[in-house]
Design goal:
Elements lengths: L1 E8 L8 H9 L8 E7 L2 E7 L12 E2 L5 E9 L2 H10 L9 H12 L9 E9 L4 E6 L8 E4 L4 E5 L2 H5 L10 H10 L12 E3 L4 E6 L8 E2 L13 H19 L6 E4 L4 H13 L5 E7 L7 H11 L2 E7 L7 H8 L8 H12 L4 E3 L4 H5 L3 H15 L2 H14 L13 H7 L3 H9 L4 H7 L2 H7 L5 H10 L5 H11 L1 H15 L4 E3 L5 H7 L8 E2 L2 E2 L1 H6 L6 H4 L10 H6 L3 H8 L3 H4 L5 H12 L6 H16 L11
Parallel strand pairs: 13-14, 13-16, 14-15, 16-17
Antiparallel strand pairs: 1-3, 1-9, 2-3, 4-5, 5-6, 6-7, 7-11, 8-9, 8-10, 11-12, 18-19
Helix pairs in contact: 2-3, 6-7, 9-28, 10-20, 12-15, 13-14, 14-15, 15-18, 19-20, 25-27
């Protein structure tokens, strides 16, 4: 695991300033504290910060081919590199290291842009081929590893593992993209390919970008996508056995390391299944780490302990205070752009704990999207059943009216909180799913956004992000459709972003066996009934793991990695919320209506409404303005 960055002159071969490249590279020191190197030649500068995992002795980067004409900087792991080496050697390539990085330069020489199709792993890399005068950027299929880039006005291309490395160059305009603001407040993150800044982009997952000096820059090219065919006729019993075999293979590949290795163990199904697999494959005890909360409503540590006891792991646990509110500015510095998933706090803490014991940790991320585990999937499918029972001509006006007139009863028992259901019933499937996923609902965004911001948006809604992916999904199955959308949005923009930044802040490499693309492809062929059946999600994963995990772990109610925001904002963060949101840059940036923010805060703190999520979303935007933009009382928008 590493940090990469660099500069490429797309027009000519102008000199690269070493001091600038060094500054960009050092901005990501946390990603690779073991070593740091630069390569500079006319028109090209590559930087690398290394966290040594594989081939510790000789795997330094930037790394070259035999004659030095191809050079690469790489972040991630190619898990099948040991299979690729003899194949590439048979094609005449000579290896000078035992690293997976060297596979990339030789694979490029033999297979060109299609080399990425041969790689199994998590990766983001940049490669310069002097003979072909070609610069190549690539990102793994499921977006585990990040890649940011920006084209400057003079034709200079910058890239990096984090947005901060681009900003360290000094040439990126910090003009906020109004569409990104809308998407952030709707989703809690800025989805690919956008960033918070107009000039910077994210390379989408499963995409490559090739740039030939002196030629027009092409759009990124997609080289892979998951297809939910749902046409596999395998029996459920056989599928259970095959799933365990595939999971074990995925875990085995991710246990290759020359440094201490362990696992996150939350006590949920996904991480517990990964730990059970590690135990099956290990001769010794597995290292496991978990976070507990002093608030019982958010504490899963007893379930993690069950799994640890069953497999006699070396288990390390730390209890986090439920008022652990000191990380807000730290998170803003880590993410560089607004990021509103509050579970970034416990993810940061579990990464901090885990790094004290190991350098590599396996996680259960991706299991909910692949196997159908989210509670919202069950609710969506219930709504789908009702939507399909009524014609649009009756359903949309009837439930649209009910959604408008029914009160928002956050205080009431769940059975009486029907407003969201009514609103969902009045929408199409994609519209309803977007509505249920929205951090800040459309009506509240409309109140919060200033006239100037709404003018710049010109009617644009972040709902278009979901429609864009829905058009590509290639399935009418209602569960598969939202799984596809989540795989391209929430998994990448939220989960993978959160884990990458939180873990790399502590120089910890995290590997995700449940995001192995071959495993994901196979599960996508299985019927949706193997994933969600009535009130039970992740049916196949749970059934397959019944011999290996306690029933209390497999079939308990999902808790998630949450923090008690509503209580924080009426308690320990009460004054901080008022100070941050009711004065300073949030008032003067020109993006928001001050009276709407004040009304929202007052209602929440008076206990009249639960606006915890919108407040946290605003709070993290304020932290971005202060920490990344350096704003105090300066306007950002006209």
């Amino acid at each position: 695991m590493c940090g990469i960055t660099g500069i490429f002159d797309t027009v000519s071969a102008r000199p690269i300033a070493q001091a600038v490249l060094q500054r960009m590279n050092e901005s990501q020191h946390h990603r690779g504290p073991d070593e740091g190197s630069l390569h500079i030649e006319p028109g090209v500068g590559l930087g690398h910060k290394r966290l040594s995992i594989i081939d510790v002795a000789t795997g330094q980067q930037p790394l070259f081919n035999e004659d030095g004409s191809v050079v690469v900087v790489f972040n991630g792991e190619i898990y099948n590199y040991q299979e690729l080496i003899p194949e590439l050697q048979a094609l005449g390539h000579v290896f000078h290291t035992r690293s997976d990085t060297e596979c990339i330069v030789h694979a490029w020489e033999s297979w060109g842009e299609d080399c990425v199709k041969r790689f199994r792993g998590m990766f983001a890399f940049a490669l310069w081929d002097r003979n072909r005068q070609s610069f190549f950027l690539a990102r793994d299929r499921l977006g585990v590893k990040p890649m940011f880039y920006a084209l400057l006005d003079d034709g200079t291309l910058l890239f990096g593992s984090e947005l901060k490395s681009l900003l360290a160059h000094g040439g990126v305009h910090r003009d906020i993209d109004p569409y990104a603001v809308e998407e952030y407040f709707a989703l809690g993150y800025v989805p690919e390919p956008r960033t918070i800044f107009k000039q910077a982009k994210k390379l989408p997952p499963a995409h490559t970008l090739v740039i030939r000096r002196g030629q027009p820059i092409q759009v990124p090219r997609e080289y892979w996508d998951v297809r939910f065919s749902l046409d596999n006729r395998i029996s459920e019993t056989d599928a259970q056995h095959e799933l365990i075999a595939r999971l074990d293979e995925s875990v085995r590949l991710r246990m290759i390391a020359e440094v201490p290795l362990g696992a996150f163990l939350s006590g949920g199904v996904d991480s517990s299944a990964v730990v059970a697999s590690m135990a099956r494959l290990s001769d010794g005890a597995v290292n496991t780490c978990s976070i507990g909360f002093d608030d019982p409503a958010f504490n899963e540590s007893e379930y993690a302990q069950m799994v640890a006891d069953r497999y006699q792991t070396r288990h390390f646990q730390k209890t986090v205070r439920s008022d652990d509110v000191d990380l807000i500015d730290t998170l803003a510095h880590l993410y560089d752009e607004p990021f509103a998933d509050s579970s970034a706090i416990p993810t940061y803490r579990v990464s901090e704990l885990t790094r004290q014991r190991v350098t590599v940790a396996l996680s259960g991320d991706g299991g909910d999207e692949t196997f159908g585990g989210y509670r919202r999937y069950r609710l969506h499918m219930m709504e789908e059943g009702m939507r399909s029972a009524l014609p649009d001509s009756l359903r949309r006006p009837l439930f649209g009216l009910l959604g408008r007139v029914y009160p928002k009863a956050d205080w009431a028992p769940r059975m009486f909180r029907a407003k969201t259901t009514f609103e969902g019933m009045a929408r199409t499937s994609v519209e309803a799913y977007f509505h249920s996923m929205s951090f800040v609902r459309g009506s509240i965004r409309s109140q919060l956004f200033s006239k100037a911001l709404k003018s710049q948006l010109a009617g644009y809604s972040a709902e278009e992000v979901f429609h864009h992916h829905a058009r590509k999904a290639g399935t009418d199955d209602p569960l598969a459709l939202i799984q596809y959308i989540d795989t391209h949005t929430y998994l990448v923009g939220d989960i993978n972003t959160k884990v990458d930044r939180a873990s790399m802040a502590h120089s910890l490499e995290v590997r995700e066996p449940l995001m192995d693309h071959q495993l994901v492809e196979w599960v996508a062929t299985l019927p949706s009934s193997y994933k969600l059946r009535g009130p039970v999600g992740k049916v196949l994963l749970k059934k397959a793991n019944e011999p290996y995990l306690p029933a209390d772990v497999l079939y308990r109610q999902k808790m998630g990695f949450a923090v008690p925001l509503a209580r924080w904002f009426r308690g320990p963060l009460r004054e901080r919320v008022r100070e941050a949101l009711l004065e300073g840059p949030m008032l003067d940036c020109g993006l928001f209506e001050p009276t709407a923010i004040r009304d929202l805060v007052d209602q929440h703190q008076a206990g009249k409404r639960d606006f915890a999520t919108p407040i946290w979303t605003l709070l993290m935007f304020d932290a971005f303005l202060r920490c990344t933009m350096g704003q105090t009382r300066t306007a950002l928008a006209a």
